[in-house]
Amino acid sequence: MTPQSQFTVVAPVLPGREGALRKLLASMTSQPGMADPKNALLPFGEFRHVHFARLVLLDDPTLGDIEAYGLPRPQRPVYLAFVGDCDGPAHECLAEVARRADPGLRAIFEHCADFDGALLPWMLAHDRPTAASYVNWVGRTVVQIREENALQQTLAARANRAPVDSPAVAQQRRRELIAHVRSEQAAGRLLLTPPQPTPLLWRLAQIANALLVLLIGVIALPFFVVLLPFLIIRLRRLETTDPEICPPPDPAALLELQQIEDYDVTNQYTALGSVKPGWFRRGLLTLVLVAIQFTCRNVFTRGYLARVQTIHFARWVFLDGKARVLFTSNYDGGHQAYMDDFINKVAWGLNLVFSNGLGWPRTDWLITRGARRELQFKFYQRRHQLPTQVWYKAYPGLTLIDLTRNARIREGLEQSRMSDSEALAWLKLL
Amino acid sequence: MAQAAMNPALATGAAVELHDIQGLVRFAYKHHTEAVFLLLRVRDAGAARAWLAEVAVTRAPTEDATPSTALHVGLTSEGLRAVGVADDVIDAFSPEFVDGMAGDTSRSRRLGDQGPSDPSRWQWGGTNRVPHVAVLLYALPGLLNELQQTVEAQFQAGFEITHRLWTSDMGGLEPFGFVDGISQPELDWQRQRLARDATQTAYLSLSCLGEFLLGYPNEYGLYTTRPLLDPARDPLGILPRAEDAPESCDLGRNGTYLVMRQLSQDVYTFWQALDRYAGGAASTRERLASAMVGRRLNGAPLVKAEAPSPASGLGAPQAALNDFNYLSDPLGTCCPLGAHIRRSNPRNADLPPGGAGIVSLLMRTLGFNAGAREQDFVASTRFHRLLRRGREYGVAVTPAQVLAGQPVPGERGLQFICLGANIQRQFEFVQSAWIMNAKFDGMRDEADPLLGNRLPTAAGMSTDCFSLPQFNGPHERLTGLPQFVTMLGGAYFFLPGIRALRFLSGAYA
User: Fold this and answer.
1) E strands in B373-495
2) Are B489 and B126 in contact (CB under 8 A)?
3) Residue A188, domain extent
4) Rounded to 5 degrees, what angle do the CA atoms B325, B111, B40 make?
5) Contacts of B442 in chain A (CB under 8 A)
6) Residue B307 pLDDT level (bands cut at 50, 70, 90)
7) How many CB pairs under 8 A join A and B?
8) Is pLDDT of B508 > 70?
9) Do A262 and B376 count as a contact with CB atoms less than 8 A apart?
């Protein structure tokens, strides 16, 4: 199994160069916001390990919200973020990208304030650690996804769709389909690359990390229990006094976001916001993100994040010394459906994290209300969303349900023996 | 849970002001078999306002005998502007309404209004052809002509008529030949549902009033945003105060949004294509057509309805058509997952089905129940209901006429109308996430079998298939479906409450 990893290269844009950079980024797209996989600067389609990637300008129109606390509006540069999800270690992926797209990347990063010309070391130095990240299916590679899709297409076109009269017929049809796949493989028309062995170091690191987090948790627990009453009082006070900043988004900004959506069955989401001032919110957010990272590594690794089954990859990254948080995700379906999933399926989880964000709709006891306040929440998230200038997906037209179904088709193909009912169930997948 | 919420002792609100609500919200005017929808543009703003201030709009009374005719008025955002409503008031309506149905290409992409259905090809409602006002006239048989002449004479100083959308009575059938208009949300006119946010573990057809009327709590127990005005802007005190903000006047109260779409139905292509798929076999042809709709021609659902329960309040024949859900058919072997009525009303609850215990509830909430996850691809239905008020138009042609090769000239289809307090969450969501979505409920490459525009996605994936899951084999697949339905026009209207209409038409600060 090849584990997935993520990179988030963030660098400030040179004052005065933003317009030129926007123009350059626009030249990389075939539809508004949609990367041309063969674009001259960064031919994403050539990188066989990249699932998703994006180039996005982080220009935060909500910086002034902090004035609601009587604090001055901070001065922040516009950042350029180069964000990707890949198979194998991120540094290896960045090295490959740097090797194969050296001139293009230079042309892009030349617009950044501190670009020193040493492309790969510079990118690695600017790769921000993720506070928490989610991978829908740990170990599912781009190569596997593409090969299994080709397999499904071959089988679906070949399948006899007449009803099966007897169990023996199901077995017989499966055998015929397997024979067909074998001959296609032999002719070189179909590839099914066996999975790579799981890197030992990665596995050890996973275990060590889980144990460490648990250990720290156990040690911290008694202190936490003692402090709990005070923390709860503090939380309740903040929840009743934190200002709520959820005006409807500016229509022009909203339109800009909508104009780059719904070209594929999957969409991108990039949002940026400030953390509420004060030690409590910053500490709480840090803690919650540690918990999320722990569950995403150890629990939600097989196709679902609580009830949500439509997120391919997501991440939270701290910026400016934990003053701000960048959130990015790649999700199946339209934006409205994504938001309704958030409200109706995981509002509690959303509140845990994002209620520490400046202006979030008011919560009760950290998990209730908040995102359940439909319109305030919808306004809030759209207002904090940023247009993603260039977005790439390695398998257009495919949703997570497709990927999971295709993987089950392959598993069924490679399974040596099946019961009659299993054989019928397998045929129904086609 | 549903029972507790229904307890009248816990009822939330004051009585509903029926006299302030346009009757269309409450009635579909089934007996008013004659109807015409007039699309107008303002000729003279002063005269237009004068007519709007005086026009006898039909209200939604409780006891009155059925009126012999009915008249309803809706305005687009351009229409509000044309009669002189201030920009800041218009901008406080929902963004979808302000933009309009053909407002930008991304909306058209979401709604599937592309290719032959692209707004640039519409007969009305497309760019530069957006109506200002829609006047909907309904009449008992024989009475429409006179009503229409009277009304048109009354408003002609203020408005010019750009289109008269005629309707025809096809005897309860839609043009393809199926019994139509069976399933509707019931509105909670008694305000029995609590105004609170609570998980509903069962599908319920009773909708909170705020789903279909502005100014009342919706399914989240919240009030949809709408223009709330400083009382200084309403010196005559015409408008009611907002329930959730008593210091403001509520311009939305007792009003709602009206979505109108003219859908041309190619009945010939529909039955000829099905005949081809069926190889000329009549029973197969009808089976496939029923599978696409999810009901037989007579309206009977493919999933068996439950025995009518006394609580449902429906008569036995109606219950047999409508008292069902898809819990017994998770794989779609009785009613395909992609059938039209299953897409447009999936009849699911907030949580996927499972045991009643707290452990089961928690497991499903956290996503740890694999079986439940398989049935959790579709959003909870109660937030996405449409109150339909459409009418057929054109000359009917029967399947028999089509199959006999008998040409019936003219064009036919549906003047689709639906009402809702949140265009985005209701109409646009149903249209984009359910009807046009090629991946609805985990499917691979098929949009709605009736309404799909058949255009491949940008990634080149086809959407012109239809799958019929089989109990004992792979899905039966129809590929290469032709386009059956084409958009000819559409617009979003605000259907104001009576006082709001008076306010909009005159005493305006």
Assistant:
1) 387-388, 391-394, 412-420, 466-470, 473-478, 485-495
2) yes
3) 142-194+399-428
4) 110
5) 401, 405
6) low
7) 136
8) no
9) no
